[in-house]
Amino acid sequence: MTVTQLLEREALDTLETIATRIRSHVIDMCAGPEGGHLGGAFSCADVLTALYFSVLNVDPDRPDDPDRDRFLLSKGHAAVGLYATLAERGFFPVRELAGYGRPGSRLMGHPVRAVPGVELPTGSLGHGLALACGFALANRYAGRTSRSFVLLGDGELQEGSVWEAVIAAASLKLDRLVAIVDRNGLQLTGATEDIAPMEPLAERWRSFGWSVRDVDGHDPALLAELLDGAPWEPGKPSVLIARTVKGHGLPFLAGRSSSHYVTLSPRNHARAHNALPRTESLR
Questions:
Q1: Mind listing the pLDDT tens digit of every residue in the chain (283 residues)?
Q2: Which residue ranges form the domains of the chain, and what is each CATH number?
Q3: Closest to 246 (Cα-Cα) out of 187, 202, 200, 195
Q4: Terminus of the chain with fewer CB atoms < 10 Å: N or C?
Q5: Distance from first CA to last CA of the chain, Å, rounded?
């Protein structure tokens, strides 16, 4: 193995290890009295890892830096995944995650601006892409080169407001805008293709004038490389379709709609941790 290959392997291991720590925090939060949206947080953990530890121009010590990249979690019900990621990145102490959903905690079921690193409250599905368009357009008018990223759920694509924003972004040539679709194939009530078929999804986005990449959503190194390289085509917004598994990594929940929202019992709390590789927190 060459030195370059060793360095690439080390970088991959680092991102994978961080993603494991994020999932570990999510397990703990979902074992609390309020439970949490574990399945969708697990499916997008590798995307969040790639963004916050390799792609986004953000500074935990200056969360309101006007030149920062913006990230919006449009699928705001996966807030436990975002909180875990922000804590590991240093926006607030990891120990604060233990208070998730408790009285007096700022870590609520959906993201709110009281949490450092959260740009806007989200979770009313179908709004995040339009908000990210606004950020991208504002940056253009301000003469900034910052990028705006937004993570959507695939069930969320059933909202008509998403496609209005898709049309607007392409017509405005917002090439500093990057959308990511967490394509885990499941929503609360079943398989997305049984409820409202969307395939061929990549071709649908292309037909609206977007540059598209359709990839394995559990390969953080590849995700980081592609997202860091956006825009992929001048004058076009970019969308990365991340093919993922809901509840990824937990044999008793992976690929099941029942993982959408769970309150882990002590037994399943232990089972979930035992299914993950051993690691330690960054902070």
A1: 454 554 455 555 699 999 999 999 999 999 999 999 999 999 999 999 999 999 999 999 999 999 999 999 999 999 999 999 999 999 999 999 999 999 999 999 999 999 999 999 999 999 999 999 999 999 999 999 999 999 999 999 999 999 999 999 999 999 999 999 999 999 999 999 999 999 999 999 999 999 999 999 999 999 999 999 999 999 999 999 999 999 999 999 999 999 999 999 999 999 999 999 876 544 4
A2: 3-275 (3.40.50.970)
A3: 187
A4: N
A5: 32
Residues with Cβ within 8 Å of 10's Cβ and at least 6 positions away in sequence, in order, are: none
Largest CA distance in the chain: 54
Secondary structure of residue 169 in the 3-state scheme: helix
Counted residue by residue, the chain has a size of 283
Q: Residue 281: left (phi > 0), alpha (psi -120 to 50), or beta?
A: beta
Amino acid at 37: H
Nearest Cα residue to 248 out of 224, 281, 216: 216
Rounded alpha-carbon distances, angstroms, from residue 205 to 125, 166, 190, 237: 19, 8, 23, 10
